[in-house]
Amino acid sequence: PTAIPADLVEGLNPPQRAAVEYRGDALLIIAGAGSGKTRVLTHRIASLIATHEAWPSQILAITFTNKAAAEMRERVGQLLGEAVEGMWISTFHSACVRILRREAEKFGYTQGFTIYDSADSKALIKRIVKALEAESMGVTVSTAQNRISGLKNELIDPDGFARQVDSTNPRDQLILEIYRQYQRQLERNKAFDFDDLIAQTVWLFRAYPEIAALYQRRFRHILVDEYQDTNHAQYALIRELTRGSEPQHVPADTRIRLAADGSIPPASLTVVGDSDQSIYAFRGADIRNITEFEKDFPGAETILLEQNYRSTQHILDAANAVIGNNFDRRPKNLWTAAGEGAKIVGYTGYSAHDEAQFVADEIHKLHDQGTNFNDMAVFYRTNAQTRALEEILIRSAVPYRLIGGTKFYERAEVKDIVAYLMSIANPADELSVRRIINSPKRGIGPSTETAISLFAQDNDITFREAMGRARELGLGPKVTNAILDLEHVLVEAEQSIDPARNTGAVPVSDMLAKLVERVGYIEKLRATNNPQDDARAENVEELINVAKEFDKQHPDGTLVDFLTEVALVAAADELDDESGAVSLMTLHTAKGLEYDAVWITGVEEELLPHKMSADEPGGLAEERRLFYVGITRARKILHLSLALTRTQYGESSVAMPSRFLQEIPEALIAWRQSPGIATSRGGERPRALNATGYGSGYGNGGGFGGRRAVGSRSYGDMPQGAGLKSEFKPTRGNRTFDNQITGAMKDNADLVLETGDRVKHTDFGEGTVRAVTGMKAKRIAEVEFDEVGRKKLLIKVAPLEKL
Ligand code: ATP
Ligand code: MG
């Protein structure tokens, strides 16, 4: 090995440098947010390659989301260039998919096995729960799904569960039976669910030591980011991979240092994490993986990092103050040299839309001052909050993209087309083919489906094989032909992409486009008068575009590769970035990322902390860590906002400011509030926090303190006087603000505006047009309103008229 090139350690502080230079077997880096943990990982990887201590293929780096993996790959690429190509830098799930695909045939699965997402697995469990009439015993579909997922995360298979289950507990007995049947069906369909991807890889390694040895030998350096969020199955996977293996012949050029007896020593393991950012306990993450690392890996070195390079002092002070309220933690000494920075901006809106308008206005303000949209992000606790945000961002002409929650792959039509592809890749997958057997409608009803299924069972063949023998089912000629035709289409599609059977094999996207045309999927959608069907047709076209893009990026990519990408991207987040748009995401998705300006919205009781956390032991502490994660994403400017009323599940109710706000020293936040709120106190912390008898914990004074139905009682510092409802009406207009926003969108596309024109807006009153930019439906007016100042508005939808 040669020395580490200077540029890989320059600029690192001494403990960071020690972490890059460490050459022992096990290293734990534990440090607060923004202290350079991920940066140290990337530099460490680069240094191992640059010194010729390892080949790129000997590196396995694991991160938590696809986005984080893509970012790490890019950073290592910047340090090393092309060498990054041969490395496995991926999430746990994608690494396991790769291993399982390679090895599938050795354990009787097909290489093209299907990956079921949570909705697929729910559909399967639902059938079983129904057949067993389990709901009458109090076992719902989601109970069963959660229990099974939990068991898999603990690496407990049905037999293992049978051994520990209480045989006098009928509900557990039922869960066991559901679990057994579910696993049997997955196996029959040659499918894995998400939890399986990890658990089955561990089981594969345990059952086939010779397969495990391949990977134990291959990966010499394993590095795991966000280690605090690993669950037991993920931990076990790492244990398997770092076991070392029996003596074996090793070619001279492998850069593997053999032990004296010729055996392969365990891979070196580096894990980095922050127990204060552990936010996945609900998915089985086990903080003990980090706290007991030194016990698990004797001789491990522990390095602490204390300097934060990300945020300003004000932001860091707020973060430290909040997290300091959690017990049972190692206190940290996080400091920054970045200077005080701007104060945190607090905002109290009177409704979710008002809060969203604040976000939109601030985004435009910062953008005008030179911050790129890329460098801004808006976070929320629950996906339901996006509706109001999106409406207002669209109206205010803020370019944005939703990360993680796009739901594109959850749309029925997209799932249909993916099910076609799954049936083609994996003919054993009954769930997928049954999904599309009558979609689009081809006259194959449920009784026909049952007939095929029974025939398959009786003859011990697959559902697809039964379809191919439809003539033996004794059905009418029309339906028989429909079944045979579908089977034929699927086989034809499979052959068209198979180079073994077809010398002119076509790319995945060509096959897909032809398939969609052949079954008339888009055509049938376009033929209806339902405008929603047009949107559906567009989604199918979009999926074909995704396939085209895939073919372009992976000229040798197979259908299975494409489906893998779809499954994993759909599950986690999107890859594309740098889109010149503000990012919207949940607080969970935000982990590991950083932005110049951050908005945390809905900082209210029952949202953050989320009301579900009240029932979970440790739930409140986990919510606090989530808030801590959110705060520490901000580099320069942090906004915390809330609304005094929020509509959820169609019901409008009063929201209370989050108790977490009170944990931030008052001097760090500059509070503002909506002009629509009729109180005389501007510029101070929303007062509900100080209401007596409140804020000392859950269950205080009979039930959960927090959101209450509007009008049911006046509370704390809510405006006094007439009923709450009328207090929250805006001063202008005679409908409520919410109604104006959510009401039918007005189409103003033809409104001609010029600079200097006087206009009137339903919410903002009168103003003067300062600029008009953009074209057609995307025309934007910048208006200086007399009372509320400058705003950017999408003319097409703004409730605007020319005076
Ligand atoms: P998190 O806990 O949020 O995942 P982290 O500990 O992984 O944070 P990084 O993302 O690696 O922190 O680093 C935070 C920011 O600080 C990044 O922009 C990184 O480039 C920068 N940074 C880290 N160390 C240094 C350093 N020694 N000099 C300059 N910048 C640094
Ligand atoms: Mg990190």
Question: How would you sum up this structure, described in words?
Answer:
The structure is a single chain. With 803 residues, this protein is an alpha/beta fold. Helix content is 40%, strand content 15%. It has a 7-stranded parallel beta sheet with strand order 15-16-14-17-18-13-21. A 6-stranded parallel beta sheet has the order 3-2-6-9-1-10. A hairpin with a 6-residue loop joins strand 24 and strand 25. The protein is globular, with a radius of gyration of 29 Å. Residues 689-746 have low confidence and may be disordered. Magnesium ion binds at residues 37-38, 225, 592. The site of magnesium ion (MG) has 4 residues, from helix 2. Residues 313-592 form the UvrD-like helicase C-terminal domain. This is DNA 3'-5' helicase.
Low-confidence stretches: 689-746
Largest sheet: 7 strands, parallel
Tell me the Rg in angstroms.
29 Å
Strand percent estimate: 15-25%
What is the topology, as strand order, of the major beta sheet? 15-16-14-17-18-13-21
The span between the termini is 77 Å
The strand count comes to: 27
In helices, the fraction of residues equals: 40-55%
* Total of DSSP H or I helical runs spanning 4+ residues: 29
Ligand roster: adenosine-5'-triphosphate, magnesium ion
How does the helix and strand content classify structurally?
alpha/beta
Write down the overall mean pLDDT: 84
Mass-distribution shape: globular
